[in-house]
Amino acid sequence: MVQALIKFALRNRFLILLMAAVFFAWGYYSIQQNPIDAIPDLSENQVIVFTEWMGRSPQLMEDQITYPLVSNLQGIPRIKTIRGTSMFGMSFVYVIFEDDVDIYWARTRVLERLNYAQRLLPQGVTPSLGPDGTGVGHIFWYHLDAPKMDLGEQRALQDWYIKFALQTVPGVAEVASFGGFEKQYQIILDPVKLQFYNITLADVMNKVKANNNDVGGRKFEMSDMAYVIRGLGYIKNPEDVENINLGQYNGIPVRVKDIGRVQMGGDLRLGIFDENGKGEVVGGIVVMRYGQNADKVINAVKAKMKEVEKGLPPGVSFKTSYDRSGLIEAAIETVKGKLIEEIITVSLVVLIFLFHWRSALSIIIQIPLTIAISFILLDMFNLSSNLMSLTGIALAIGVIVDNGIIMSENSYRQLSEWQNNNHPDKNL
Fold first, then answer.
1. What is the pTM of this model?
2. 44-131: CATH homologous superfamily?
3. What is the pLDDT of residue 277?
4. Burial letters for 65-101: b for 16+ Cβ neighbours within 10 Å, e otherwise?
5. According to the 3-state scheme, what is the secondary structure of 86-126?
6. Which segments of the chain have a pLDDT < 50?
């Protein structure tokens, strides 16, 4: 079999060279398309179900949220295991699928089962799927440099402008905000006044919710003109909250400001983000979508940030907290440099020992061809190029040329024996 392959290759040299050129071009295309990252993605094939029920204890979250979800998600096909975690006001359920399961098929199946499990949860509690990213999907962190803006304004700018703009970048699964204060209206009630006016906390909550709403009407036609009637009721400032009617006492309306006061404040925080001990900052974490090219996504995010920065208030700019592209590019340049050094070294060694450029060329040409085929296989099996795989290719270059050197040396030995046996006078 091997002899037949050798004979076929020798008799069809141009066909073999054409096949080598096709494989090299295919490999170059695979290099351009193959995702590049600094570290290999060893995370499990998982779908995260996140549920928020603020103010509840971890034990209540476990009994009312986590346990019903874990129990009802177990019937999904091709699941390896399900893990649940409960904490104050939050529940996380990790659905681990088999490695060969398509991630978006898995998310669809989990979403279908969540629609059924919804009826088992407390009223008003809605579970949601986490982003379609992986454990190494946090590829880029940034924060705002806004010395003249308070943390609440910075967080509002991040949540309502910057976050939405960056989420439109292809390959970005989510932009998670961190730091600062989430602005909210806070009502400070006086329990003595509540008791005096005979108003409960539930009454206050329901009335405030009911009065923060726009309502629609019908059209009103007059003088060949149609006017759309609507009621504007959304809260725009603390005064709107203070003037909400809660009931009546002896025929006199009781408003929110009669039983307490309204102020602007921040939501409950479980931690802060500090920049090198200089103070708190506000920013975001860019999470890459599953199977994307980290280097391309980071470059696209940076380009989008330059566009977004033009619309920021005066004195506000972006600062990079963590950028994986530097590590990726450094790893690629290091491995690329080592590849070039090893190719040159091996080529010189082959030329010196064989002292025949055609034989050396037949051996050296195996190096780029083998590397090209390696990237073809990486792309076919949906494996990313990272520091580990590229280093393995660099270390294998010496092994790549071993067979060529052995075959060339064996050919020289066979030719020498044939020449000695059939033409002994030419060796004089």
1. 0.79
2. Multidrug efflux transporter AcrB pore domain (3.30.70.1430)
3. 84
4. bbbbbbebbeebeebeebebebeebbbbbbbbbeeeb
5. EECCEEEEEEEECCCCCHHHHHHHHHHHHHHHHHHCCCCCC
6. 427-428
